[in-house]
Amino acid sequence: MIKGKIGVVNYNGASYQNAALKTIYESTYTNFEVIIVDSASSDNSIELSKKEYPQVHYLLQDENVGVAKGNNIGIEKAIELGVRNIILMNSDIIVRTPDFID
Question: What CA–CA distance (Å, rounded) separates 46 from 85?
Answer without folding.
Answer: 25
